[in-house]
Amino acid sequence: MKFHFHTRRYLMDSPAPHSQDTTDQGNQSNSSSSSAAMPIMVSVLVVVICCTIFYFIYCWRWRKRNAIRRAQIDNLVTLSKSDLPLMDFNTIVEATNNFSKSNKLGEGGFGPVYKGVMSGGHEIAVKRLSARSRQGAVEFRNEVELIAKLQHRNLVRLLGCCVDMEEKLLIYEYLPNRSLDAFLFDPDRNPQLDWKRRHNIILGIARGLLYLHEDSLLKIIHRDMKASNVLLDNKMNPKISDFGMAKIFDGEDASQVNTGKVVGTFGYMAPEYALEGTFSVKSDVFSFGVLLLEILSGQRNGNYYVQHHGHTLLQQGWELWTRDQASEFMDPTLENSYSPTEASRCFHIALLCVQGNPEERPTMSKVLLMLISDQMQLPLPVEPPIYARSNTADFSISTKTGSAYNESVNEVTITLVQPR
Asked: Alpha helices of 174-312 — where are they, by DSSP H?
């Protein structure tokens, strides 16, 4: 009896075989789940760490960028107070009707330009630098520093500037006739440019460039001379504008400078500058020569002209010169109202200005002297750089060395960075 009691008690205390198997399976299942969850947890942890790192990097870059921007604005405010009247931003907003589209005059490489009317009725032109322009502050400072020191009847006059948080504004005198290209390349307005006005515009541009190169306190190379950067006042007198890309030399030799950054507008750009990044006052002379050919012909140099004529305006001028048919180059809207002697002389001077070798181009002082002196003997020009069509839709310019560069399709200002 005693034996049976102990046996029964032993059997009750022993675990059932089936229960033991279930426990083992549960333990194995938990172990498998833990093993599967471990990579997920590690992946989530890595993602969190990476996101945290990227967030801190972004915050650091944002703070650094804002610090640089604030420093630029502080410098601009100091410059404005010392050199130019610093205008109130709210006053400019009111004058331009909050920069309304109806007051927009156009858009340049660094932002739109608006017409404004001050409380006293005085009209102004406001250039509003685009916040998207990475070089906006640099170009703004350059233009303020430069124009504040320039005074010439053939240069646009800067009245003041405005800096307010992210806003950077330049306030110019308002010129009702806007830019030369608005007349020259518009079939409806082109006839308003008779020969007397065109000749006066040519002389005015030449005088303005001469002042920049030789007569101002600083030697200045414009680097973006073109029809859209020549404004016309109410009497159709020309005024050179847009000095954001100008290069200033204070007592330095500007005969030849190398730069790794090419800025300007293809079609007006001298070959040595476009191909090698080398510019000088002779680069502006080349641009003036192209502009002079455009004023004489009423045609815009560039891809559009090449597509319709098979060669550039420079090549067309040279071919007519070699065939002694200069009169065929003249704008048909002029008919026979122009002076053949003056027109032929301007055509000759333009070809001298667009010669490929900068040393063979005249200086602006000689250009102006040749324009106003009928007795001065002119040297014979040589063939200008040849623009040739490439295998693609783009166009290239070739010289005796066989180098080439792409040309702008829409005539806008282009910045091309080249390693040196």
From this structure: 181-184, 195-210, 271-276, 281-297, 303-309
